[in-house]
Amino acid sequence: LKPFVVDCSSSPQCSAPCGLGQRSREVHCVSNVGDFVLDEECNMNLRPADVENCDMGACAKSWFYTEWANKCSAECGMGVRSRGVLCLNNHISSLPLEGCGSERPADSQVCNSGPCENAIEWFTGPWSQCSAECGPGSQQRSVVCLMKSDEGFTLMPPYECSSLDRPLGQQSCNLKVCGAKWYHTDWSSCSKTCEGGFRVREVRCLSDDTLSSEGCDEQLRPVEREDCSPEPCTPHVDENCRDQYFNCNVVVQARLCVYDYYKTTCCASCSRMAHKQTAHRGRS
Questions:
Q1: Which of 31, 74, 103, 250 is the most buried (most CB within 10 A)?
Q2: Where are the beta strands (DSSP E) in 56-95?
Q3: Cβ–Cβ < 8 Å for 11, 24
Q4: How far apart are CA 222 and CA 206, in angstroms?
Q5: Burial level of 42, CB count in 10 A (0-12/13-18/19+)?
Q6: How far, CA to CA in Å, does 143 sit from each of 121, 215, 224?
Q7: Where in this chain does the record put each PLAC domain (predicted)?
Q8: Which residues touch 275 (CB under 8 Å, ≥6 apart)?
């Protein structure tokens, strides 16, 4: 197999002027007579890397800043003007290496736009809190007409600023999307007082602003119906309904309670039997 040859005719530069970067070089497969041939003719396991990492040392940092803004914040009198200030890596090796440890350059300075000659302007206060904790709401701020002079400010009637665009005194706001929760009423009365009934309640999914919503978790939905009054019904006892025959259990077993004579003679036993039959039919 033929050897790989590294082209050292040019000194590769690191891709970064400081810090970590990469540099590349040309690697060729060369024949015995010095000609370039396909890489496959050389042992690929011995192929030198054509890209390697390089470290140019720590990057120095310096303060970078823009020119001062041409316009003062005040149309007259004292105001401020600003500029952008950033701490960035520098690529000039002759700059000092102390970085941005020195005092940060000012990003604002006082400016004077000349004397105020009773300038009239609209002035606004801060926005109030949003009227709704979630969903659409509104917020307000005060808007007043002021005359600015070297002595200070004077409140003016609104018509004095009528030639100027009046700032908004109210705007819409939406702090967050309203969540949704399950709400339910109290349970209704049980449909029966004994022998098993049911009761119901109304369940609704409502957003924070009490509007109907589909955003509730169905797995957490409260039940709307449940069983109630499972205890057996106690039959009404007639004090005059008594057994007058000592062996009324035989009358019941013989199913003689269908006859009026035995209904009267064995009133208590026949009444209990009739109640049991009614309860059994109700359960089935």
A1: 74
A2: 61-65, 78-82, 85-89
A3: no
A4: 13
A5: buried
A6: 10, 40, 53
A7: 237-274
A8: 233, 235
Are 4 and 48 in contact by the 8 Å Cβ rule? The answer is yes
Residue 167: pLDDT band (50, 70, 90) is very high
Burial environment of residue 29 by CB neighbours within 10 A (0 to 12, 13 to 18, 19 or more):
buried
Of all helices (H) and strands (E), which one includes residue 174? strand 170-174
Residue, of 252 and 103, whose pLDDT is higher: 252
- Side by side, the strands of the sheet bearing 119-124 are 119-124, 143-149, 152-156
Instruction: Report whether 203 contacts 221 (CB < 8 A).
Output: yes
Token pair 């005040």 is at which residue? Answer: 74
Contacts of 90 (CB under 8 A, 6+ apart): 59, 60, 61, 62
pTM of the model: 0.34
Distance CA 25, CA 37 (A): 17
CA terminus-to-terminus distance, the chain: 96
